[in-house]
Amino acid sequence: MNLYPAIDVRAGRVVRLRQGDFEQETAYEEEPLTLAKRYADTGARWLHLVDLDAARYGGYTLAPLLRAITTTSWMRVQTGGGVRSEADIEAILDAGADRVVVGSLAIREPDHIAGWLQRYGADRITIALDARQAGNGEWQLPVAGWTEDSGMRLEPMLEHLAGIGVRHLLCTDVSRDGTLMGPNLDLYRHVLAIAPELQVQASGGIRDIADIVSAHDAGCRGAVLGKALIEGRFSLDRALHKAQRC
């Protein structure tokens, strides 16, 4: 099971949002590059890097940071935010990313995903589905940094992704993000019941190492570690050791 320590960047600072709300932001003192190096020194093999400014306004801004991370550590970087075109995918890969996280663009242009997989390879693209459950129980897919309703539902999108050969899926229950409520294991079981071929990364609400194990037991192949990790609620080295034994 791969663990992805997350660094969310807004206006050059490490921040965390609650439930994707830009008005509910917590900023942290450590600089993004310093934090990335600390995670690398602890033994992390992957980093999840998010450009929150780009997620809201478009135009990926973290290429210099991405290059600095990949040239000063052995970590592989999965990154996204504001990917609005295939040219953005190519530019982020050229800047040193191992995988580009494609969210809103994939939902708005699902017919183009197969072409991206063919050009860049299934291991270079992570599709991000940020899900919000409506009052009627349906899972909806918001876009544009979770600020707009796409009008699409989770289940048909999952069937499409599995059918065209997507390998990596980052799935976030927006209501759990930044809350330390624990991951939505029922959501991940639901996702994998529909599309068992996908390698799912759990995201949103992970608060301790037990949650990482629970996500693994629910079928997830990875977990994104955000607020709990950055606030020191568990140690990354212990989490990595536990994940290696899952």
Automatic annotation (TrEMBL):
Gene Ontology BP, a term = L-tryptophan biosynthetic process
Can you tell me which residues form the catalytic site?
A: 8, 130
Spell out the subcellular localization from the entry. Cytoplasm
Q: In which pathway does it act?
A: Amino-acid biosynthesis; L-histidine biosynthesis; L-histidine from 5-phospho-alpha-D-ribose 1-diphosphate: step 4/9
Q: Mainly resides where?
A: cytoplasm
Supply one GO molecular-function term.
1-(5-phosphoribosyl)-5-[(5-phosphoribosylamino)methylideneamino]imidazole-4-carboxamide isomerase activity
- Cite the EC number: 5.3.1.16
Superkingdom of the organism of origin: Bacteria
Q: Spell out the GO cellular component terms annotated for this protein, sorted alphabetically and separated by semicolons.
A: cytoplasm
Which UniProt key words apply to this protein?
Amino-acid biosynthesis, Cytoplasm, Histidine biosynthesis, Isomerase
The reactions it catalyses are: 1-(5-phospho-beta-D-ribosyl)-5-[(5-phospho-beta-D-ribosylamino)methylideneamino]imidazole-4-carboxamide = 5-[(5-phospho-1-deoxy-D-ribulos-1-ylimino)methylamino]-1-(5-phospho-beta-D-ribosyl)imidazole-4-carboxamide
As for family, the record states: Belongs to the HisA/HisF family.
Protein name per UniProt: 1-(5-phosphoribosyl)-5-[(5-phosphoribosylamino)methylideneamino] imidazole-4-carboxamide isomerase
Recorded name of the encoding gene: hisA
